[in-house]
């Protein structure tokens, strides 16, 4: 066992088979975590509730925490983060698969360097996890990550592992719909925390139609709110804000098919 907690939010719409696969990829790590915290804030379907109960009953390190009053993904992640008892927290989603060496690669970065938050590249697949369709590559060094932060989220959220205490000290997660992770990383950067991405694919994520999921007026509004937040934190200049809005708002308002093409071409 290790000094790692895994924080894994689960929704009513999560696929039971996908959740079991995600959980198995955690328990089969070469450095297994001390605990796996499954967090929910929605009424669950019978299938997903049965799956969660089975994982809790058959794996002693797995717990299920339900927070019905938590607001949105940010709210349930914050409650789950406070519930984690280990000094380092690894994020995953219910449709992700972690490489067996993921924790072995990330933990030394947090314990042997000045980095507080570490992520990696992420591969996306639709049906066969062994044949991903594309890779969401991210900048590696702290300097490169800082350069991306004003106009593009520089970490793949489900790949991250971080120092629990320092992240809680900057306020942790907030209810910031569709931008929970970028909001958190921006506040961490403004507080002087150190970032790094490992130049490897350590997580594979199942996707559906990203054009539908990443578009619409609500997403455009979230981009505007995020741009405003980056300015308030002193991270983004006026030029950064203009670049952010010009590059990211128009695709949100296009048709889903067009957004899918753009996403596949430019990756996020």
TrEMBL record:
InterPro entries: Glyco_trans_2-like, Glycosyltransf_2, Nucleotide-diphossugar_trans. Residues 6-161 form the Glycosyltransferase 2-like domain. Keywords: Glycosyltransferase, Transferase. SUPFAM superfamilies: Nucleotide-diphospho-sugar transferases. It comes from the Archaea. One of its GO terms (molecular function) is glycosyltransferase activity. The keyword Transferase applies. Its EC number is 2.4.-.-. Belongs to the glycosyltransferase 2 family. PANTHER family: GLYCOSYLTRANSFERASE, GLYCOSYLTRANSFERASE EPSE-RELATED. This is Glycosyltransferase. It comes from Haloarcula limicola.
